[in-house]
Amino acid sequence: MADYSEAYSGTQELTPPSQEKRLLDVLSRMRNNMTGVYVVHLHLSEMRPSHRQPHFLRMVGRSLDSLAANQDVQVFSFANDDVVLLCRNTPVDEVDDAVFRVRALFNEDPLTMTEDGSAEDRFSTWYDLSQPRDVKDFSAAVNEALVHREEVKNQPTESMSTGRASKVMTGTPLVPDLLQGILQKLLEVRVGDLVHRQPAVVVGGGKGQNLAFREHYVTMEELRTRIAPDVNIFSSHWLFQFLSETIDARVLEVLSRLDYTNMDAPLSVNLNVSTVMSRPFQNFHALIGENTHNVIVEIQITDVFANMEAYASAREWLHEHGYRVLIDGLNPLTLYFFDPSLLGADYIKITWGPEVRGGVGQEQTRQIRDVVSKMPEGGVVLSRVDSEEGVSWGLELGIRCYQGHYIDKVVEAMAQKGLI
Amino acid sequence: MYGGGADMAVRSSSSTPTHMHRRTQEQLLLEYLRRLENRREGRKAVRINISSLMPANRREHHIRAATNSFEALVSELMGQLFQLKNLDIFFVYKSQAHSRVEDTVQKVKFLFSDDPLFDEKSRSESDFVSWYDVETGYDDLIKMVREMSDDGRQVKRPITRSNVRAALKSRQDHGDPLSPEILGRAVKALLRTDLTSLVRRQFVCGVSKKLVPEPIFSELYISIMDLRETMMPGINLTSNRWLFQYLTESLDKRVLSLLSKTDRFSITGDISFNVNVSTLMSPEFMAFDDSISAARRGSMVLELQKVDIFADLGAFLFVREFCQEKGYRICLDGLTYQNLSMINRERLGVDYVKVMWNPELVDGGQTIRKELRDLVQEAGRTHVIMARCDNREAIDFGRSVGITMFQGHYVEHLIAEDERRRQLLKIKHRIERDTT
User: Fold this and answer.
1) Quick check: ipTM above 0.85?
2) Cβ contact, residue pair B310, A180, below 8 Å
3) What CATH fold (topology level) applies to the domain B177-422?
4) At what angle do helices A237-256 and B241-260 cross, to 10 degrees?
């Protein structure tokens, strides 16, 4: 994926006069004959970063191709990802259809949630260029985009957010030929200092706040710097999954050195289903002896879907031996499409993120509430909570357990007061 | 997993416990032979080693033709036919039919006569056909078949301290596991390999009460087993889930280029094929999309794997919208009954969901039957396909819970039957016409 995106942005940068400048040129040449000319400005720059990746935008271009081929329409793509359609005497319905198609592609983005064509529509703006006022407004918008282009030139690219596709990182895309070397490096480097801890806390219920567990995790960016600074190890979801099996083994080594007899709260660790059945985990199991109740195994939903039967037998084994199981990698969006409460896990973890901040639909809210009610008390964890807003959103839905930067601060404050 | 393709691979891979309790043809053959224990007199058997032929000659229609030639004998209760996992044909029969069986075997041999196996005349017969006398060689036969069925049966073992034993066995049975280095080589080799002869086709059909199949579309897939033999013999391409998944991305692109070269590869009717979500966002897919007419898009079904769509739901929803808008249909492949109960087809917006047949469903009794009937109802009858139907039981069960579309070896068999019936009818008409 990333190799194409690089090629894509590469060609974009090579194209000499910028699309913004070209558009301004065209506009000035047309100045004396603006009859029947109008413009639709698609504000793709305001969408979530995960939707603004090159392969998504390339497909937007394709959706508009047929319009441009059949009608007198020119398409301009801005550096800030906005797209402009310049139309002359084109039936509005045709353009409307094309805009609707693009809009539909981003159905999940909060930007498209405003009503199409309404005054609050943040997705698109229409300008009638036969009206001098609209010409002025539109030119201002283009100039603004041009300023943005200059700024972007001197800025590093956006860093990662959630999800596979959005893990945009720099470096050579990971290919099989590089994999063996990275794997070897992974086996050799020190990882102990890369294992960080983050608490999950149960809020409310009269008892104030309690520590539910501490997640032990490796910061991938740090690990990458150590094992493959020039490679984007996230460029292939599958190859990264493959690497993660070895990461598991290294993390388990580190965790084997902890004392499990006197823990104030259990620890949780992210593992592959295949790891549970592997020798490193069985070594770990032998080491911790009776203290399995102090360990929660976090399993990614992708891994569950990769092999449901393997997951089921791993879960059975873990439960039989006193471990608890957490399903990770969910977000409010995923809950709308399937019900993770049927997976027989003790916990499920939902990511609090930008897609929630804009508010979720009623149907979606009902779905989340439904899943929360089916899980055991405190069995739903809201993670990546970076503000109080997240907690209040979760409490509203019946979620009791929280994790994230905001919670870190709360826990720290509590610790200082000797409350935890 | 790759539809029918990996379907075969999955069946042969002991690392994938998907079909833990499915009874294989090997097991059925073993049971059958055991039942013959006290009445083995006058019984013989023959094994036709389709597996020793070149992969290109093992096409579905060749094999169908081969099994068809035994039909008459089967319907006259002269014998029982088993189609083994490696495509070999095993026929156990009454010795009074021996000369007819010999004729049939000759006919089958003739079907494959251009295979290099028959170049060296001296060894051809014994390499391609093995004859057994059930009466005198009963114990040896049982032993041989038991070994075959052990290989196919997957015993659910508790997780041991490590799966070294399983890994060793898998290596012995299926070759060396796919490593990153080999994967790199495989991706490159894939670019050079001509896949034309490895393309298989299996129909998704409506099946009526009288078991008359009505094709809806056909799935085109690459047989992973044959791909491995052609490209990297001795390597178990499916041994690592994630590395295999990576390989399928390259495979997708090769299939796309194959499909856009329609002059080399003529396909009739609606078709489906496997793709990754990432493939649908690639320049290769865009080029493919450009190369086909709008009408053709409407006749294509894109099959996506559940692991792939849930790996990045956002990306899936995006490409789904993009592809459906262009007229393609989307099928969510590889679901188990449990998966079906978890997902919401309508919200995912897929046109079809493919549920894998599993004999355990019948064992589940009325409870499962009712649950499944409700799930089918909820997903919509016209949207659910039952795949991997190996026998009539699958169709009967599927129909009993409201499923109307089926795919699998048994469906292929029904199609062959249907064709044969039509042929006979044609001949009959001709005779009638000639005599009047």
Assistant:
1) no
2) no
3) TIM Barrel (3.20.20)
4) 180
